Prior knowledge:
By secondary structure, the protein is α/β, with parallel strands linked by helices. The protein has two domains: 5-64 and 365-418, Urease, subunit C, domain 1 (Roll); 66-355, Alpha-Beta Barrel (TIM Barrel). 38% of the residues lie in helices and 22% in strands. The protein contains 14 helices and 19 strands. The strands form three sheets. An eight-stranded parallel β-sheet has the order 8-9-10-11-12-13-14-15.
Amino acid sequence: MREKLDIIISGGTLLTMSKNADIVMNPRIGIRNGIIRSVDTGDIPRDQMSAAEIIDATDSVILPGLVNTHTHLPMVCFRGLADDLPLMEWLNSYIFPAEARYVDRPMVYYGSMLAIAEMILSGTTTFCDGYFYESSVAQAALEAGMRAVPCQGFIDFPTMDNPDQTKNRQIGRAFVEKWNGVSPLIIPAFFCHSPYTCSPATLTGIKELSRESGVLYLTHVAETREEVATIRNQYGTTPVRHLQNLGVLDEHTVAVHCNWLDDEEIAILARNGAKVSHNPESSMKLAAGIAPIPKMMNAGITVGLGTDGAASNNDLDLFTEMDTAAKIHKLRSMDPTVMDARTVVTMATIGGARLLGLDDRIGSVEVGKAADLIIIDMNKPHLTPMYNPYSHLVYAAAGSDVTTVIINGKIVMRDRKLLTIDIAEVMERVRKIAENIRNDRSP
Length: 443
Ligand SMILES: [Zn+2]
């Protein structure tokens, strides 16, 4: 007897992103209890399919959900507040003061919900975030049915949710205890802001705690030339060497940005198994630098794609990020063969899953994995004709071409309608938060 399934996706073109990068034409994907139960060619007549819901993916591409490996969701509330500035001025004169004044639990919760809506609408099914009041980010993800790696953040000055840095360990431990085992969707982790805002004691203390707790450890690294100069001044070496000297680089460490690395530092990351989150648009906008990603990938480093926060991007759309990632390295190297479309789609799916240590669960469409899938409508003028689906996804499609999003076997967007988020209410809440910010800034 045939298994009764929850969902069958039928038709279209499936890019599995599995090890063999299989493409299945006219597939039939069976989903039950959040898991992909079968992937085969759709030869069986439709009237013999049995599922509570059958999704017709004719003329569409089916892809594993995109993985955003680095962002600061609530910063959507500061989107467009301060643009066209260098990183340090942007941070010190605008972002840090605005955060000190306006960040509270409701801002983090509604900002996160808005950001999650934007991400689902553009095909992202998993994100990794670092911000203040991170439990409110996790709560928003849980309610929206979004897969998330929320990171408790650490920085060496008093913040609204951590006024006393001597309590870092307790705060970190409490965060992991609070979220471990709550839901398969929520995987807690730690984020040290950077080697220039965290002392060696903070960096090593939190790393030690992350090893004890078995959670991922992230930090911004070598984002700007100024940072490299600061670290050199303070510690007589470069950021990656500094982290290596402190013993915090291992396979559970994610270095975000890595725009300014020399060849030996790339080898250090590779040797230690550290992973890299690539956020090209944010680094372009802040003129922070261009990470030597092709060299890192040649060295065997796992690289995932990220958008960074919406105050420095200014959107959370991984489709535009893929387009940028594919093009910027071609221009930099003056070699159009680097970062081909398939490599970039890999980075945005299974690469991101690998970076987060979740590749046994997500990142490809394979039997036994969690059902995190997106369906992209290719029956559009700007996507006609289609010779190569990878090419279209990177160079021609937009986030708004995603029609259906499934996370952990649950449909969270159908025909571009969000099913788990009251988007009108969330937008209204965020507009109110912005109104306060705007009124305060007027003379
Ligand atoms: Zn960041």
